[in-house]
Amino acid sequence: MAKRNGFQNDLEALYRRLLEMGVLVENAVHASVESLVQLDAAKAKTVIRNDTQVDVMETEIEDRAVHLLSMQKPSSQDLRLISSITKVVTDLERIADNATNIAEVALRLEGQTLIKPLVDIPRMAECSVNMLHDALQALIQRDTAMARAVAARDDEVDDIYARLCDELLGLMERHRNPTMMAQCVHLMFVARYLERIGDHSTNICERAVYLVNGKQVRLG
After folding, report:
1. Nearest Cα to 127, choosing from 31, 29, 17?
2. Is residue 219 one of the residues assigned to a domain?
3. In this structure, what CATH number is given to the domain that contains residue 122?
């Protein structure tokens, strides 16, 4: 019994570490978009530098998950949880990579005047980060209804992405200025990174459903 209790304590600690990683990644996305809107090179460099911490946490969590699997024969529920954790950390690491990519765009645009006030990109970021936060909450609470509702919100992110790309392509066609065209391309990449964050959040929702009922689902 003592061994089993120790296993459960370690499993709960692993779960908490996953949630700490989630908070770190949420903050990275917020900071990366702020660095772009403000063209703040110092903030962008901080986001890029902090990505190493996310990578370290991913490796740590995966190693601890493997160790837990080797400790004793886990129950089917424990296996689902450990499997879900290892999948979710991969999505979190990729979200952090997208935040880093956005920060790198901010560095490339340093010193330029933005072609237009950035409204849709912060809106996309807010939607995507809220999805991520709520997807993790659905995982914590084992709430499949919440997971499905969060995943459905990815349509809003996709809609903003499509509208923004159309607008940027229109600007490129009208102005034909090389600097402006290059900036439009960079901003379309940013929109794509934010759209991918919504997709990864949807993946986390799918893991929340799997954790509860043991069934693989596609919510995207």
Report:
1. 29
2. no
3. 1.20.58.220
